[in-house]
Amino acid sequence: MAREFKRTDRLGDAVQRILAQLIQVEVRDPRIGMVNINDVVVSRDLSFARVYVTFVGKDTEEACLEAAEALNKASGFLRSQLAKELNIRTTPRLQFIYDKTSVQGQHLSQLIDKAVRQDQSTKSQGDASSDDAATDDNSGV
């Protein structure tokens, strides 16, 4: 019977959970701020992990990239702390990558909301003008 989850997926979930706590408690770099860890992808040989992150309160992409670089500089410290928590032979090397998908999703959602509002206002203006025309036609009879 096949396993329900791969080992890499289980390790990725554990790394995500532990890193979220470590970054919040142990990392004191003011450039980083609040971090959301979206996903952790571990290589098949368990030697490398890509950590996809977003930053709360960072408005510009440059600030987010700077914060991701600060996390990459702290990756050795985080890896050593991670090794203490995990009971595995080799602890994966960490690479933090700024994940733009949530920002792009918010932007697309705003565009969709704007288009829906414009469509509704156009429809309500069209209904109002057709009501006026129907009233004018009936008054002439």
Proportion of β residues? 15-25%
Low-confidence stretches: none
- Number of strand elements: 3
Give the terminus-to-terminus CA distance.
81 Å
Listing every helix as H and every strand as E from the N terminus to the C terminus, the arrangement reads HEEHHEH
Helical element count?
A: 4
Residues in helices, as a percent range? 55-70%
Question: What does the largest sheet look like?
Answer: 3 strands, mixed
Shape: elongated
What is the arithmetic mean of pLDDT?
86
Spatial strand sequence of the major β-sheet: 1-2-3
Radius of gyration: 26 Å
Category by helix and strand content: alpha+beta
Written description of the protein model:
The protein is of the alpha+beta class and 141 residues long. The chain has four helices and three strands, in the order αββααβα. The protein has a three-stranded mixed β-sheet with strand order 1-2-3. A hairpin with a 5-residue loop joins strand 1 (34-42) and strand 2 (48-56). Helix 1 packs across helix 3 (75-85). The protein is elongated, with a radius of gyration of 26 Å. The relative contact order is 0.13.
Give descriptors for this structure.
single chain; 141 residues; alpha+beta; three-stranded mixed beta sheet; 4 helices; 58% helix; 17% strand; elongated
